[in-house]
Amino acid sequence: MSSTTLLRTLQTGHVGLNVTDLNRSIDFYRTVLGLQLTHEGTDPERRYAMLGRDGRLVITLWQQSTGAFSTGTPGLHHLSFEVESLGEVRATENLLRELGAEFAYDGVVPHGEGSASGGIFFSDPDGIRLEIYTRAGVDETPAEAPTTGAPTCGFF
């Protein structure tokens, strides 16, 4: 019997992110993703926050970093969130613009040429690369994929 047979219900659980300013990151993720603060560790030597939705933990933030997110070292490439509609992607894009977020590409873009899926690609306050996308409807927009031969979510 293969060991993978035991993992039939495998799903991604929560994601833990190192941040430089816990309060700033809590505000960002609550505002942009609509998450609720479910628990916070306030010990000055071990500050963290658990953020979730509908009773499910989504992100844990750990204030234990300095500097900015590095794309040149092994580790997280980007964190992606799927939403149901292109309207939700566009609404989030507008909110992020109001917040002054940095975008990798301008506007909603398809994952690849002719792809119905796509979204927005941006960074959180620590430079962690994020994506909010939808599976359908992007092929009806006039935008073209910013790269060819690779998915847009590669942030090339």
Automatic annotation (TrEMBL):
<keyword id="KW-0456">Lyase</keyword>
<dbReference type="InterPro" id="IPR029068">
    <property type="entry name" value="Glyas_Bleomycin-R_OHBP_Dase"/>
</dbReference>
<dbReference type="InterPro" id="IPR037523">
    <property type="entry name" value="VOC_core"/>
</dbReference>
<protein>
    <submittedName>
        <fullName>Glyoxalase</fullName>
    </submittedName>
</protein>
<dbReference type="InterPro" id="IPR004360">
    <property type="entry name" value="Glyas_Fos-R_dOase_dom"/>
</dbReference>
<dbReference type="InterPro" id="IPR051332">
    <property type="entry name" value="Fosfomycin_Res_Enzymes"/>
</dbReference>
<keyword id="KW-0479">Metal-binding</keyword>
<dbReference type="InterPro" id="IPR018146">
    <property type="entry name" value="Glyoxalase_1_CS"/>
</dbReference>
<dbReference type="Pfam" id="PF00903">
    <property type="entry name" value="Glyoxalase"/>
</dbReference>
<dbReference type="GO" id="GO:0046872">
    <property type="term" value="F:metal ion binding"/>
</dbReference>
<dbReference type="GO" id="GO:0004462">
    <property type="term" value="F:lactoylglutathione lyase activity"/>
</dbReference>
<feature type="domain" description="VOC">
    <location>
        <begin position="11"/>
        <end position="135"/>
    </location>
</feature>
